[in-house]
Design a protein that fits this description.
Protein name: DUF177 domain-containing protein
Strand content: 35-45%
Radius of gyration: 21 Å
Strand order of the largest sheet: 2-3-4-7-9-8
Bound molecules: zinc ion
Shape: elongated
InterPro entries: YceD
Structural class: mainly beta
Pfam family, one: YceD
Number of helices: 3
Order of helices and strands: EHEEEEEEEEEHH
Helix content: 10-25%
Oligomer: single chain
Organism: Deinococcus phoenicis
Low-confidence stretches: 176-194
């Protein structure tokens, strides 16, 4: 088990030989808007990556990552397991002056992972790939009753004294509908697009 997924690209950069890395992650920490965030996994998440030289400073990363992400139920906040089976495939470019790896959009619309340390930390890359594939909002059960907005009681465990004052339709309006669109402010990953964008 490892905390930080890394791939060593030093010899690839020197001799154009291919590089591989694999391991299991029980969580993933990444940086977003200057703060450390954590993705929680229900069980060790296997990753496997291979990087092939394309010539010059460019290379191609491919592989797989299979995290079982733990997200909060949008209504009652209990843990919900979301299994993901991700196929990785990303162009990479080595630029020695780059301190922190970031994803850049190429003219073709394709994303390019730009990095400067040959001992490449894949945390942010795997986190972004995971979050882009994850649902914006999940429910632990389709008929989750949510929490009482007055006392916070979990209404899945039965009604509380405030039930009559908070119609269920109103709860639905505020928290979004399952599988439907959710207002951006309720998406915990709404800030993701700010992740690691290069400064102009
Ligand atoms: Zn729930
Ligand atoms: Zn209540």
């Amino acid at each position: 088990m490892t905390d930080t997924p890394r791939i060593h690209l030093g010899s690839l950069l020197r001799t154009s030989s291919d590089a591989q890395a694999e391991g299991e992650l029980d969580h993933l920490t990444y940086e977003q808007g200057g703060t450390r965030q954590t993705l929680r996994f229900a069980r060790p998440a296997p990753f496997e990556v291979a990087v092939n030289a394309l010539g010059g400073n460019e290379m191609y990363l491919q592989g797989s990552f299979e995290p079982t992400l733990i997200l909060d139920c949008a209504r009652c906040l209990r843990d919900v397991e979301v299994p993901l089976d991700l196929t990785l495939g990303t162009l990479m470019r080595y630029e020695p002056s780059v301190n922190t790896p970031y994803l850049e959009e190429a003219e073709t619309g394709e994303e390019v992972l730009v990095f400067g340390d040959p001992d490449l930390d894949l945390s942010d890359y795997l986190a972004e790939t995971t979050l882009l594939a994850a649902p914006l909002s999940v429910l632990h059960a389709p008929d989750c009753q949510g929490l009482c907005q007055v006392c916070g009681h979990d209404l899945n465990e039965g009604p509380c004294e405030h039930m009559a004052q908070v119609p269920v339709e109103e709860i639905d309006d505020e928290l979004g509908t399952p599988g439907g669109t959710v207002h951006a402010k309720q998406n915990p990953f709404a800030g993701l697009r700010d992740l690691k964008l290069p400064e102009d």
